[in-house]
Design a protein that fits this description.
32% of the residues lie in helices and 22% in strands. The chain has 436 residues and is of the alpha/beta class. The strands form three sheets. Strands 1, 2, 6, 7, 8, 9, 15 and 16 form an eight-stranded mixed beta sheet that branches. A four-stranded mixed beta sheet has the order 4-5-3-11, with helices on one face. Strands 12-13-10-14 form a four-stranded antiparallel beta sheet, with helices on one face. Strand 1, helix 1 and strand 2 form a beta-alpha-beta unit. Helix 1 runs parallel beside helix 5, helix 1 packs parallel to helix 9 and helix 2 packs across helix 3. One of its GO terms (molecular function) is oxidoreductase activity. Keywords: Oxidoreductase.
Length: 436
């Protein structure tokens, strides 16, 4: 990198305090009750449940455990659902739409309780989230939605008009917004490290740097081929997401990896942080390609992320674009230097909902659509209870048919740059039309 304001560090900020590391090599067992593909949030959460129920379980990860999106994300516990209520009701029926909204609230509450009960040292902070409106019309719609959500689901949420906005965030860029108090933040790499610790202590065997190369039926079970040998498993759970490869071709045709880039500023003066982030809340926006941002857990820096239009390399251009977005919101940060810039893959599907589904005896838990900090542990555990034959604990609004396949797609998201540019154009038009 040549721009002096852009960081030279291209690994996640989170890895400074909680670096991802390989698990010491071990020979895979000849057979297990359950083989899990992936050792991120979902795979470890599922393995934890299964191991505590006395099952023999092995999780295989092509990289170091957590090296994918689990430790590359923004650490916001949003549990966001991309579809609005009306769209979900039209596509999947009103009963499922209601169930999804209720489950989102339950999943957030569960994550906070899980962190506390297990004693996980991961900087969990229940600060709330502010979502900024790009215009007064959008603010009016968001305020009505917040009121409806408060009444129907019991979420602590309320509108913040423009006149009171600076009590929440130090910018004039938005025209008011809404606050949800059931959302907060954590340190994702520390969370993964702690989840790995308790999963290993419970008896889960984790094999890092051990890609699964194929899964085939073998009588009533499966043969799971890995780079370290073949394992026979009675059941198989696939928990890959934005890094799904050809070992799971059915899932690969249904998940599109989308690159997300995150930047972190150098340390800012306490007075600046107090002015820009007075309540240290998590922040999102009402734009199609809106940024998500937050203070780092120590309250000294600002982290900002968003979708990247390209899908190759690690160029300076996307970092400059993220930096421009930061200074559009906070003009006083125009000369601030970035300490870190990195990217990771999130996974989208045509339904835009996380999913648990079965295909030819293999169970899948995936498709977190950019909100895996909440959904991956929740969906992974629900999938584990399904494998255990505990229907009451496995019940989930996301347990239904597989996501729709994508025509002419076999894992290379060649079309994403065009789609991202289209969304960017929609945002420009929306900003021009917004009553600001």
């Amino acid at each position: 990198m040549t721009d002096p304001t852009i960081a030279a560090t291209t690994t996640p900020y989170w890895w400074d305090d909680a670096p991802v590391r390989p698990i010491p090599a071990r020979t895979p067992p000849r057979s297990v009750d359950v083989a899990i593909v992936g050792a991120g949030f979902a795979g470890l959460s599922a393995g934890l449940v299964l191991a505590r129920e006395g099952r023999s379980v092995a999780a295989f990860d092509a990289m170091n455990p957590g090296e994918g999106a689990s430790t590359r994300n923004g650490g916001i516990t949003s549990g966001n659902i991309r579809l609005d209520y009306a769209t979900m009701a039209r596509r999947f029926g009103e009963a499922r739409a209601i169930a999804v909204e209720a489950e989102a609230h339950a999943a957030r509450k569960f994550l906070a309780r899980f962190v506390a009960e297990e004693g996980l040292d991961c900087d969990f902070q229940p600060t709330g989230l502010f979502k900024g409106a790009i215009g007064y019309r959008q603010y009016d719609a968001m305020a009505r939605s917040a009121e409806a959500l408060r009444k129907s689901v019991g979420v602590e949420t309320y509108a913040v008009p423009f006149a009171e906005q600076k009590t929440v965030i130090g910018t004039d860029f938005y025209r008011g917004g809404t606050v949800r108090m059931d959302i907060g933040g954590l340190h994702p790499a520390k969370f993964h490290r702690e989840l790995l610790r308790i999963a290993l202590a419970s008896g889960l065997a984790v094999h890092s740097g051990t890609p699964v190369t194929g899964i085939a039926r073998d009588g009533e079970g499966f043969r799971v081929a890995t780079a370290a040998g073949t394992v026979r498993a009675r059941q198989v759970l696939v928990c890959t997401n934005g890094y799904t490869d050809g070992a799971a071709p059915f899932l690969q045709r249904r998940l599109v990896p989308v690159r997300s880039r995150i930047i972190v500023t150098e340390e800012l003066a306490p007075a600046v942080m107090a002015r820009l982030m007075p309540r240290r809340m998590m922040i999102s926006e009402g734009r199609q390609l809106g940024y998500y941002y937050r203070p780092t857990p120590d309250g000294r820096r600002i982290l900002l992320g968003g979708r990247e239009s390209g899908n190759k390399g690690n160029p300076i251009g996307p970092s400059l674009l993220m930096r421009a977005g930061l200074t559009e919101i906070f003009p006083e940060l125009e000369t601030v230097r970035l300490s870190h810039t990195w990217f990771g893959n999130v996974a989208m599907n045509r339904d835009m909902l996380p999913r648990i589904f079965e295909k030819e005896g293999i169970l899948y838990a995936s498709g977190f659509c950019g909100s895996g900090t909440v959904w991956a542990p929740w969906v992974g555990m629900r999938a584990a209870y399904r494998l255990l034959g505990q229907p009451a604990r496995a019940e989930s609004a996301f347990d239904f048919r597989p996501p729709a396949g994508i025509p002419l797609y076999r894992g290379d998201p060649w079309f994403m740059p065009t789609i991202i540019q289209g969304y960017r154009l929609q945002d420009r038009i929306a900003m021009l039309r917004a009553r600001r």
